What does this fold into?
Amino acid sequence: MAVRAVLFDLLSALLDSWSLWDDIAGSGERGRRWRFEYLRLTYGTGAYVPYLDLVEESAEAVGLPRDFAREMEERWDELAPWPGAGAALRRLARKMPIGVATNCSEVLGARAAGLVGAPFHSVVTAESAGFYKPDPRLYYAGLEALGVPAGEVLFVAGSPRDIRGAVSAGLKVVWHNPAGLDGGGAERLAVAVIRDPGSLAAVIEEG
It folds into this structure.
């Protein structure tokens, strides 16, 4: 695998967004139900609609207040990188460009990327691309922003649906799964599954 650049999912692969959803919802069980419903809605949406609308709709669908979406916006900067993510990406960025392709709005995407502590070459959001993942156009927009062909870019996914979407877009995929999600078989499409961002360098070197 000749890798010249790495493209990352942001809100699951690099940031522990699960903890914020759980805290707003009041428990891990309610937070997971809300988050999984949000993921179901988002990955079936296609063309971009306002991100917070999907957060609202998913909250209501699982019996939570719609205004939890506004609380999430207000507390957005509480998102924290997974342990070691910032340091691992800073080391990687000294060797090749790194970028983000995220299912998010422009404003929230930029704020979230800034929390990772890494020098991203580009941050592409669903809003800027006009489509949510797994529509290939968001992955393609991420590749265009990096300026590197798909065959030379590794995508680091944060969820099983992201694995399938990136593979469909022609990308080789590593799944960073620190939350211990069930892959439902999607993990078999990834070249590697890692639980520590520091392991990514070894995957790239092994090729």
About this structure: The chain is about 45% helix and 15% strand. Residues 17-77 form one domain.
